[in-house]
Amino acid sequence: MTGKTLYDKIWDAHLVQQDADGTGLLYIDRHLVHEVTSPQAFEGLRMAGRQVRAPEKTIAVPDHNVPTTEGRDKVIENEDSRIQVEALDKNAREFGINYYPVSDIRQGIVHIVGPEQGWTLPGMTVVCGDSHTATHGAFGALAHGIGTSEVEHVLATQTLIQSKSKNMKVEITGKLAPGVTAKDITLSVIGKTGTAGGTGYVIEYCGEAIRALSMEGRMTVCNMAIEGGARAGLIAPDETTFEYVKGRPHAPKGAQWEAAMEWWKTLYSDDDAHWDKVVTIRGEDIAPVVTWGTSPEDVLPITDVVPDPAAFKGGKVEAAKRALDYMGLKAGTPLKEIKIDTVFIGSCTNGRIEDLRAAAAILKGKKIKDGMRAMVVPGSGLVRAQAEEEGLADIFKEAGFEWRLAGCSMCLAMNPDQLAPGERCAATSNRNFEGRQGKGGRTHLMSPAMAAAAAITGHLTDVREMM
Amino acid sequence: MDKFESFSGIAAPMPLVNIDTDMIIPKQFLKTIKRSGLGVNLFAEMRYLDDGSENPDFVLNNPAYRNAEIIVAGDNFGCGSSREHAPWAIKDFGIKCVISTSFADIFFNNCFKNGILPITLPEEQVEVLMRDAEKGANARLDIDLENQTVTTSEGESFHFEVDPFRKHCLLEGLDDIGLTMEKAAAIDSFESQAAQARPWV
Ligand code: SF4
């Protein structure tokens, strides 16, 4: 008998029932809910006269379209946003689920709040009506995004109908060079596999360079598994994980902690497990990267130049032409010469304390370029408070950054933080699609340190030159 | 959910790869708390000009394709966010079937939950269908879910694969939640076992 992968183990431990055709009914341990993809699901429950089956395992927080400016707990100006946030307030109350309203310091981006509060634990199944649920895979939890119909399904039954994915191993060997971060790992993997390279798979990230990452870094890596097309990303739990989880408000305590640890320590892929696909990248070969186009796979080392669309194959030739046109770039231009107007540091990819520390380290004692618009949106109220305590907020403010309240903000520009047409942004978020940060807005994805460097120089910059 | 019947319909060609959910339904239309009425905003940023008027170059504004019920698209259709507003908008516009070489996972799942049939076919076959679709309103594709075939206006027929359970649900118009609730006993017993094995959850 061959061994099992970590994914196999978690799958097996949550399988309620398997049908003859291979579809499984999977039990869900944690269901995270936000204001944009849930109203129709709650409405569906009401219309069918159904209850939330496990309100104690359901956690709601508004994040996607809340303003990140002061005063938002009093009034949200935009009417549609207000209606959605009010609907979540009401649904959370009526169905008795755990809730962190905007007035609560623990409020923040759902994928940052879950781990921070200890809701996310190793070996769990975690779902949310948001594709970046993959973030929670950093704990060795099987976590993926679902649509609103599935949100309703999980609310009503605490289960999800799933067919099993294939197993893919992404190994990052060796050590990262200075200036190279988790964001560079995850973007480089997508650059190598393409945005559809992971379709049909659950990815497990492993190797020395992954082991060396903090939990924050691991969350950054898993966060973008979905951008590579995978259903979920996983990293086997280890001491770093247990250390992070221990003592969190909803983490087990005492004898339960011991019992949990016993199981958690079995959560790894067996040596003889079967992999359907394996990708290996040398940590030493990864450089600080930026995206040049309108898909996260359009990524290159900062030392490179804007590519020539003719160099691609098939449908990608047209897509690359269209991307350069949209981005207002010419083939052959050195990436470092691309001027930017705006810097956005935040999102569930890079809105945690370590990310803010990395950006602040570059910004310390410096000023952003004249005319630059720059903002930091911490991932949660607690990250914000900690950054203030550590003096990071002052560094950002003195450099000329706006210091915001927690939320998704300019990651998807559903709140008032948007790019104007043609405005070019260095962003630490995860998507550079057309119009993602505002209609006509141009997004370059990169790590927090790279974004900070660009804020100072006014163009895309190799952070290694500033270290 | 309505039953998915076999039909013959106009197919709109969209030979673009990576058509993402932000293109299908831009985020400014996600602030609704309803499922219906999103069809007018389908592909909004490509479909309308800055002044709000229709972009004559966009396929669905071409008189031949205004009543399209099928989209034939390039690789990796529906990538990006999990927003179910994407299939809601597609459905509300009147599209019942999307054909591509590959689909993003979440979008693919969401289609079935909304009575839309996503069909995956090899590149050569999608190309044939794309060329057929480019002929306009007189060239209709036949979609037969029962027999799992797509047939071009010239009578060339391709077989496609579909998960048997999903096919059954589409054909019968079954609602997943109702089906799963019939398994309540199994969920109850799993839950009590899990409470023993992993009491900290
Ligand atoms: S920060 Fe961006 S990617 Fe993350 S949950 Fe919010 S909108 Fe989605």
From TrEMBL, chain A:
**Residue numbers binding [4Fe-4S] cluster:** 348, 408, 411
Q: Which domain of life does this protein belong to? A: Bacteria
Q: What is its EC number?
A: 4.2.1.33
> What Pfam families does its record include?
Aconitase
Q: Which reaction does it catalyse?
A: (2R,3S)-3-isopropylmalate = (2S)-2-isopropylmalate
- Point out the signal peptide segment: none
What residues does the Aconitase/3-isopropylmalate dehydratase large subunit alpha/beta/alpha domain cover?
Answer: 8-458
Its annotated pathway reads: Amino-acid biosynthesis; L-leucine biosynthesis; L-leucine from 3-methyl-2-oxobutanoate: step 2/4
- Identify which cofactors the protein needs according to its UniProt entry: [4Fe-4S] cluster
Record keywords, A-Z: 4Fe-4S, Amino-acid biosynthesis, Branched-chain amino acid biosynthesis, Iron, Iron-sulfur, Leucine biosynthesis, Lyase, Metal-binding
Quote one Gene Ontology molecular function term: 3-isopropylmalate dehydratase activity
Record-linked CDD domains: IPMI
Matching entries from Gene3D superfamilies are given as: Aconitase, domain 3
What biological function has been recorded for the protein in this entry?
Catalyzes the isomerization between 2-isopropylmalate and 3-isopropylmalate, via the formation of 2-isopropylmaleate.
Q: Indicate the family of this protein.
A: Belongs to the aconitase/IPM isomerase family. LeuC type 1 subfamily.
- Subunit structure comment from the entry: Heterodimer of LeuC and LeuD.
Tell me the protein's name: 3-isopropylmalate dehydratase large subunit
* Organism annotation: Limimaricola variabilis
Automatic annotation (TrEMBL), chain B:
Catalytic class of the enzyme: lyase
Q: Which InterPro entries match?
A: 3-IsopropMal_deHydase_ssu, Aconitase/3IPM_dehydase_swvl, AconitaseA/IPMdHydase_ssu_swvl, IPMI_Swivel, LeuD
Listed name of the protein: 3-isopropylmalate dehydratase small subunit
Describe its assembly.
Heterodimer of LeuC and LeuD.
Source organism's superkingdom? Answer: Bacteria
Organism for this UniProt entry: Limimaricola variabilis
Q: What family is this protein classified in?
A: Belongs to the LeuD family. LeuD type 1 subfamily.
Which gene name does the record give?
A: leuD
EC number(s) on record?
A: 4.2.1.33
Task: State whether keyword Amino-acid biosynthesis applies.
Answer: yes
Q: Which HAMAP family match?
A: LeuD_type1 (MF_01031)
User: Keywords assigned by UniProt?
Assistant: Amino-acid biosynthesis, Branched-chain amino acid biosynthesis, Leucine biosynthesis, Lyase
- State a single Gene Ontology molecular function: (R)-2-methylmalate dehydratase activity
* Pathway membership: Amino-acid biosynthesis; L-leucine biosynthesis; L-leucine from 3-methyl-2-oxobutanoate: step 2/4
